Amino acid sequence: MISFGMPLKARDGLPDIDDKDMYKHVAIVGGTGQGKTTKLLHLISKVNGAKIILDPNGALAEMVYAMHPDAIYVNKHNPVSLNPLTREHLSKSEMANELVEVLNTASRVTSKDQVEVSVLMAKIIRNAVRIGIKDLGGLSEFLEYEELRKKVNDKYWKAFDEKDSKGWYVNREQRESAKRISARLSMLVDDEHILPFIQGNNFFAVEQLVEKGKVVIFDFRGFDDFLTAFLGGLISIYVKSYYLHVATQESKPLFFFVDEVDLFFSSLFSRFLAEARKYNIGVIMSMHSYSQIPKDLESMIEANCYTKIILQDKHKAEVHIGQKSHLVLCDPPPEITPKNPPTFSFLRDDWCMI
Questions:
Q1: What is the pLDDT of residues 261-308, one digit of tens each?
Q2: Edge-to-edge order in the sheet of strand 215-219
Q3: Count of CB atoms within 10 A of residue 74's CB?
Q4: Which terminus of the chain has fewer CB atoms gathered within 10 Å of its CB, N or C?
Q5: What share of the chain is helix, strand, coil (3-state, %, to 5)?
Q6: Global pTM value
Q7: Is 48 helix (H, G, I), strand (E, B) or coil?
Q8: Could you tell me where the beta strands, DSSP code E, fall in 138-187?
Q9: Are 226 and 232 within 8 A, CB to CB?
Q10: Domains along the chain?
């Protein structure tokens, strides 16, 4: 049985989404020019509360700033510290683990040949952070130069560069691993535009932004893929960390809008997406195509996003609300005019049941 409601007119755009469903997360899939930005803007305008907008290309960010001129606008020329090693509410090992996760995600999305941080490399990073290194530049230098390590009065680091009776290094594998970590970090610390983002006291206290209902816009236009993925990965993991360590079921709303989510999320966000709705956190994400993202990430999005909008062309979109599916007319096809109205029309999801 098909129950028809009012036909959708062009000015109505894509279907609206109930506020309560925004906490169950939204995924928008579509290519360039198919309406992703328009839909994201509509959703950003309709929700109240703290909003974090992560835009790798800049077009969405500028439009949101026009809507929220009092927002905090962050870009290449207006940096803020996102230093992963000065996070007040985390232990040193937790900060190190977050850094490893972000490095792995950034490496995965920017190079198929890039090897993830190994167990040994992660152990080296944790031990370096444990002795009080506070920024990535210092971490890179410490892992590169033996003379800096010799100055540290610590059992692990005293044994790190130990030599045998013949003058050979005992732990050659971990020394090589340290140099590989340093080389990877050099992609960040050798870029003068990135340095303000990764040194100093961390600005991005999500709990304070939520409490004050702030809008923060991140525009990463002008950075290469690795730098964009790394910085966006930091922001994404800080939102996840807010859920894990700070948020309560009484916390004020937080809406996280992520364009090209495949650059920043990994399958490790599955638990976050499944649980975040309990803490009034909604994630609204967009991507070009399911075929361009890893299967584990696709499965995570399919399982955890209650509303999915697949933009098929400039005239049609398929909308999934829970297990229900609807076709929606975005713009009238050219052959449809007021003098030749359709006898059958795609309908808004909240006007009909299919």
A1: 888 888 888 899 999 999 999 999 998 877 777 888 888 888 889 888
A2: 72-74, 215-219, 50-55, 254-259, 281-287, 26-29, 307-311, 316-321, 324-329
A3: 23
A4: N
A5: 45, 15, 40
A6: 0.85
A7: coil
A8: none
A9: no
A10: 20-80+203-336 (3.40.50.300), 92-197 (no CATH)
